[in-house]
Structure formats: C-alpha cells, structure tokens
Design goal:
By secondary structure, the protein is of the alpha+beta class. The chain has helices at residues 7-12, 52-58, 60-77, and strands at residues 20-23, 27-31, 39-45, 83-85, 101-105.
C-alpha cells in the first residue's frame, strides 16, 4: 500500500534521499530536515496510512512497533528519554499526510 504522490512513500522507496536511522520490513525512520531538537527523527510505516487514527484502526500492531522503534532511538541517543508526537490533520500541523511519529530526544526538553 503506497501513494505515488506521497513524499514519505517516495522517501521509503529511495526516490528521494534521506538520512536513515532505522529500517525493517514494516518501518522506516530518518532524520527530520528541519529538526526541533538535537535529535529529531521521523518514524513512518512502509504502508501508507493518512494519519495515526487511520493507522490505529487499520494496524494497531504497526503503531505499537513504531513506539518500540522510538524507544530504541531514544535508548541509543539519550538514555531512553524522548518525546513522541503525532500531528493529525492540517489544523494540528500535519503537512505530509502519511502517518509519521516525531521522536525528539538528545537533550533535556522544555515542557
């Protein structure tokens, strides 16, 4: 399941370069090009879902796996502490409509 017009589907397919942090059969993670913390990684499922609610309804196991990947990244980068953000909908700041988790870590984060 992919969308030929989707930026993240193109990144996953290798059509657009990215700085890979993690990948497996179902998930791809790469550095955000506009970081909001010392470490800012985007985690995306290889399958195209528009947002986190759609992913939760369609494949809750994939959503849980994305959280596991976030923990791995935080363990590697900053003693396990991290912030995990899903923007859902245009008014919430979602700009790419392929579900993605923002992992922010690598430093003490303000509230």
């Amino acid at each position: 399941m992919s969308d030929s017009d989707c930026l993240f589907c193109k990144i996953i397919a290798g059509e657009i370069p990215s700085e890979k942090v993690y990948e497996d059969d179902t998930t791809y993670a790469f550095k955000d090009i506009n970081p909001k913390a010392r470490v800012h990684v985007l985690i995306v499922p290889r399958a195209h879902y528009a947002n986190v609610a759609e992913l939760a309804a369609g494949d809750a196991g994939q959503l849980a796996h994305m959280v596991e990947v976030a923990q791995r990244i935080a363990d590697d980068e900053f003693h396990g502490a991290y912030r995990l953000i899903f923007n859902t909908g245009l008014d919430a700041g979602q700009s790419v409509f392929h579900v993605h988790a923002h992992v922010l870590t690598g430093e003490k984060l303000d509230e």
